[in-house]
Specification:
- By secondary structure, the protein is of the alpha/beta class.
- The protein folds into two domains: about 10-165 and about 325-340, Rossmann fold (3-Layer(aba) Sandwich), CATH 3.40.50.1400; about 170-320, Rossmann fold (3-Layer(aba) Sandwich), CATH 3.40.50.1400.
- It has helices at about 25-35, 45-70, 80-95, 110-115, 135-150, 170-185, 200-205, 225-240, 265-275, 295-310, 325-340; strands spanning about 10-15, 100-105, 125-130, 160, 190-195, 250-255, 280-285, 315-320.
- A four-stranded parallel β-sheet has the order 2-1-3-4, sandwiched between helices.
- Helix 6 packs antiparallel against helix 11.
- The longest helix is centred in the N-terminal third of the chain and has 27 residues, at about 45-70.
Length: about 350
């Protein structure tokens, strides 16, 4: 075999973003995203009714306005260009015989197109860029890859990188990004704010159906694929590295929607409670996101800051995500090399 034939593929997958910050573009994106049964996990008729009669007639315009507030005039969506920069950095570091491709689970660049571009690779490492496992993020990305790869006549060896919530490189990357910000800001408290999930998603990840969301279950890691437990584990890994004392930090969950129960504590509720306790300077880290996006820049950096100041706080700083920082490029490259060696 020649070196070209032995090329190894690396597929980096993030969630996705609208092509433009407009109502029609956001509507197309939300139709694909929320039409996924792993995201809105209900019967098909109920999902279609909810999507077409309630969500799509109203939410796209509101979301488009939010996207407009973070959209870069030259580069577009932060999630997209940070992910592109990461892919380029990792490709440069890995070099030949690697081929690095970026895909979004929803929207462009698509997973089908990326799989096509990797068709000449003799093996593929698939790295969903979601630190903590959820069926609505990692699960749906992996399922789509396997569906497409399995349809090919020649199915290449594929290595699926699992959730990396406690990977030393991931933790060290967030430490490297956060430490200078925290040292300069001199906060009174740190919030570790993760994306929320409906409680039913957590319970469905429990094979026994009896353990998740009971007292202390996340502390003892009762279920291996429990998203909430993995979030708390990430916090526990970062706290000593950042020199945070007990009581000087909290873990919480943002972005809840609808009337069904979501995992707690809620970020927006904690913002008011912390301000009432006298915290004046609040730093927020979002370790469920490896690239800054709507949920970090707009939801936390803008809306959460406004809420905290209205509740009596003096300042709130959003710690940037990992984006394409050199330490994160190094960590992703190391993860790829390590998993390629196991195939």
């Amino acid at each position: 075999m020649t070196a070209a034939v032995r090329r190894t593929g690396l597929l980096l997958i993030n969630l996705g973003t609208p092509d433009e910050p407009t109502t029609p573009a956001v509507r197309r994106y939300l139709r694909e995203f929320l039409g996924d049964p792993r995201v809105l996990d209900m019967n098909g008729i109920g999902r279609a009714l909810l999507l077409n009669l309630i969500i799509l007639p109203t939410r796209p315009a509101k979301s488009a306005h939010a996207y407009q507030s973070i959209w870069d005039a030259k580069r577009g969506s932060p999630l997209m260009y940070h992910s592109q920069d990461l892919a380029a950095g990792v490709a440069a570091q890995l070099g030949a015989p690697w081929q690095v491709e970026l895909a979004m689970r929803y929207g462009s660049p698509s997973i089908p197109d990326a799989i096509t571009r990797l068709r000449d690779c003799t093996r593929i490492v698939v790295l969903p860029l979601f630190p903590q496992y959820a069926s609505s993020s990692t699960g749906t990305a992996v399922a789509r890859v396997m569906e497409l790869a399995g349809a090919a006549w020649n199915v290449p060896p594929i290595d699926l990188v699992p959730a990396f919530f406690d990977d030393p490189g991931f933790i060290a990357s967030f430490e490297a990004v956060a430490k200078p910000v925290l040292a300069a800001f001199r906060q009174d408290h740190v919030l570790f704010s993760y994306h929320g999930l409906p409680e039913r998603h957590i319970r469905k990840s429990d094979p026994t159906g009896t353990t998740c969301l009971t007292d202390g279950c996340c502390d003892r890691f009762a279920t291996a694929n429990c998203y909430r437990a993995q979030c708390y584990a990430t916090t526990r890994s970062l706290v000593p590295l950042l020199g945070l004392a007990e009581g000087a930090y909290s873990t919480c969950f943002q972005s809840r929607l609808g009337k069904t129960p979501w995992i707690q504590p809620f970020t927006d509720v904690l913002l008011d409670e912390i301000a009432k306790k006298g915290v004046k300077r609040l730093a927020v880290m979002c370790p469920a996101f490896v690239a800054d996006c709507l949920e970090t820049i707009e939801e936390i950096g803008m809306r959460a800051k406004e809420q905290f100041l209205a509740a009596g706080g003096e300042d709130l700083v959003l710690v940037p995500s990992l984006n394409a920082t050199p330490v994160w490029v190094d960590a992703v490259s190391a993860i790829a090399r390590r998993h390629a060696a196991t195939i």
